[in-house]
Design goal:
By secondary structure, the chain is an alpha/beta fold. It has 6 helices and 8 strands; from the N terminus they run βββαβααβαββαβα. The chain is globular.
Length: 233
């Protein structure tokens, strides 16, 4: 596996950096990995490396580049988490989706690409992975504890490719009512699979954090890998 930072031209002008992890073998497919509110930090790079070690080419774009490039924060640190929420408040979702679609195209056109590319996102990235399912032609999408999906369910009719939603049962940022709404509105969509993990909080898959819960994280990971293998190869 090799890693590097690449620079990608944005659709509406400017450019942004992205962390690229490439397997030593011919890639199985590509994954656009979508950051939490705390930026492209060590945790996101570790997830990218882990996917690359099993054969995926993984790109982690810096979505905050218009606000502050190269943000790397720790969710468990109160001040750094507060800064993450400040950045989230200023973040333009529509521009972020355009950047992710540009990242998708970058991976599809990259040398050695199989042309199949999906997305996997966490927290803010979980919301964006849902929106990649509604607004892009990504081949498969995985959302971990995505926020505000309940406010974007009108777009669900546009889903064309398979989507997994991993929902934390005790998510402090997604109320029980919001979770119920998501499940009710999407339960009849054959492209959407919803897994709910009882008793765990937001961030349950975030390794080396206070929210991490090994059993739920490993179950979600196994489900994600089987899903990606089925739909990306």
């Amino acid at each position: 596996m090799t890693t590097q930072t690449v620079t990608i031209s944005a659709l509406l002008g400017g450019s942004f950096n992205a962390y690229l992890a490439t397997p030593n073998t011919q890639p199985r497919a590509g994954i656009v990995l979508i950051q939490e509110i705390v930026g492209v930090n060590q945790n996101m790079r570790q997830i990218a490396d882990d996917f690359a070690k099993i054969g995926y080419q993984v790109l982690v774009p810096d979505l905050y580049w218009r606000l502050e490039p190269n943000v790397q924060l720790d969710f468990d640190d109160e001040k750094q988490r507060a800064k993450g929420f400040e950045l989230l408040g200023a973040f333009d979702i529509d521009s972020g989706i355009e950047d992710l679609k540009t990242a998708l195209s970058f991976l599809r056109q990259y040398p050695s690409s199989t042309s199949k590319v999906g997305s996997v996102g966490f927290c803010l990235g979980g919301k964006l992975a849902y929106l990649m399912a509604t607004r892009s032609d990504a081949d498969a999408n995985v959302s971990y504890y995505g926020v505000e999906i309940d406010k974007n369910l009108a777009e669900a009719t546009k889903i064309q490719k398979p989507l997994i939603l991993h929902i934390a049962g005790n998510d402090e940022y997604v109320s029980p009512d919001a979770q119920a709404t998501i499940q009710q509105e999407l339960k009849d969509n054959p492209l959407v699979t919803i897994y709910r993990y009882a008793g765990v909080s937001h961030g349950f898959s975030r390794i080396n954090s206070s929210a991490y819960r090994k059993e739920a994280a490993e179950l979600a990971s196994d489900r994600t890998l089987a899903f990606l293998k089925q739909h990306l190869g």
